[in-house]
Amino acid sequence: MSLETMRPNPTWDAASYEDAVDTLAAHSDELVYKIWAGDWCKDCRALLPDFGAALEAAEIPDERIEEFSLDQDKRGPGVEEYDIEYIPTIVVENDEGAEITRFVEEEDVPPAVWLADEIEAALESDAA
């Protein structure tokens, strides 16, 4: 079941987030985005439409985006396996299934910006 909250925000301005979009796009064929959320959740409704728009702007293939819809008790697929406590939670993994980073509920910047910075830092330190 796909999440309504992941439907891209049509008014999101990719040009205002060019660095984040470029970082996500640069790794579009090597990372998987796993998103746990609920359409009933106010934080999800506030944050995920812009994140959906960022993934769309970065041309992330649909097969690299996995959405997990949780009920109001935050139960659903992968919750225990990934230790999901707060939503939205976005886990970014490489093709081997190793976690690169995760965004949990509320950071001080939008999910796309936060994840792009974390991805860049993690992958640069791996390359060094």
Explain the overall architecture.
The chain is an alpha+beta fold and 128 residues long. The chain has a single domain, classed as Glutaredoxin. It contains three helices and four strands, in the order H-E-H-E-E-E-H. It has helices spanning 18-26, 42-57, 111-127; strands at residues 31-37, 65-69, 89-94, 99-104. The longest helix has 17 residues, at 111-127. It holds the Pfam family Thioredoxin. It comes from Natrinema zhouii. This is Thioredoxin family protein.
Per-chain topology:
Layout: H1 18-26, E1 31-37, H2 42-57, E2 65-69, E3 89-94, E4 99-104, H3 111-127
Helix pairs in contact: 1-3
Domain Thioredoxin: 1-128
Protein name: Thioredoxin family protein
Pfam families: Thioredoxin
Task: State the CATH architecture.
Answer: 3-Layer(aba) Sandwich
Provide the number of structural domains.
Answer: 1
Task: Give the biggest sheet.
Answer: 4 strands, mixed
Share in β-strands: 15-25%
* Overall SS class: alpha+beta
Total DSSP E strands: 4
Strands ordered across the widest β-sheet: 2-1-3-4
**What is the N-to-C order of secondary-structure elements (H for helix, E for strand)?**
HEHEEEH
CATH superfamily: Glutaredoxin
Please name the CATH topology: Glutaredoxin
Spans where pLDDT lies below 50 across 5 or more residues: none
Under CATH at level 1, the class stands as Alpha Beta
Shape: globular
Query: Helix segment count?
Result: 3
Q: Kindly provide the radius of gyration, computed on alpha-carbon positions and rounded to a whole number of angstroms.
A: 14 Å
Protein name: Thioredoxin family protein
Pfam family, one: Thioredoxin
InterPro entries: Thioredoxin-like_sf, Thioredoxin_domain
Organism: Natrinema zhouii
